[in-house]
Amino acid sequence: MPGPFPFPTPEALNSGISLAVAFGLGTLIGVERQYRQRSAGLRTAVLVALGAAAFVDLGMRLTGGEGATRVVAYVVSGIGFLGAGVIMKEGMNVRGLNTAATLWCSAAVGAFSGADLPLEACFVTLAVLAGNTLLRPLVNLIDRIPIDESATEATYEVQVTAPAESAGLARDLLVERLEAADYPVGTTAVEERGEANVDVIATLTARTAHAKDLDAVVADLEKRPEVRHATWTVQTGD
């Protein structure tokens, strides 16, 4: 008569080892995230690695390498939804991208573990830890370097606020003044601002612009009776 706890099969032991590897490596990644008080910390990293390992291992158990390949494709796409949950936009700033990328890498660690590739899983874990720790001093050093506007890809916009009935005149005036300052306009847009006013926005085609030149353009525009307010902004490319 068989006992209540049957002896585990070799396949079951192999699954247990895969999950144990995913748990341990996910813990290493999660500890660093937890230490830095990120929104997705220790438990999340471990669960992502465990889940990826479990699904890939299940695919291998059912249909071999072909099944594992299909499961990995679903893991890669599915983890994107989880990563999107930790990304937050606050005004012009976006937070959580690094944490989302770390979760994605945790899934890769779990997938390697579930596919019976523990050494490769260790390599990925070391690379993730190095990226989140060893690169931080380099990032801080780069952030301290003064920005050379000529070396950055930036988008410059000049905006004027005018009465709705003067939108066309304000647009022509804005384009004319910018081109006179040797800043050709790429596109223009008109947006409603309340019931009586509109914002006319001109995007420059120039890669770089000098602040003093744009300040002069804005100051000149604000002297015109058709313009109630003028300003300019710059956004660096991703």
UniProtKB/TrEMBL annotation:
Family assignment from sequence similarity: Belongs to the MgtC/SapB family.
Gene3D superfamilies: 3.30.70.260
The protein's name in its UniProt record: Protein MgtC
InterPro entries: MgtC-like_C, MgtC/SapB/SrpB/YhiD_fam, MgtC_SapB_SrpB_YhiD_N
Lineage: Bacteria, Pseudomonadati, Pseudomonadota, Alphaproteobacteria, Hyphomicrobiales
Keywords: Cell inner membrane, Cell membrane, Membrane, Transmembrane, Transmembrane helix
Naturally occurring in which organism (per UniProt): Methylorubrum aminovorans
Chain ranges passing through the membrane: 12-31, 40-59, 71-88
Domain MgtC/SapB/SrpB/YhiD N-terminal per the UniProt entry, residue ranges: 19-140
Keyword Transmembrane helix: yes
Domain MgtC-like C-terminal per the UniProt entry, residue ranges: 156-232
Pfam family, one: MgtC
Origin superkingdom: Bacteria
Primary location group: membrane
Function description: Virulence factor required for growth in low Mg(2+) medium and for intramacrophage survival. May be involved in regulating membrane potential by activating Na(+)/K(+)-ATPase.
Topology in the lipid bilayer: Multi-pass membrane protein
Cell compartments where the protein resides: Cell inner membrane; Cell membrane
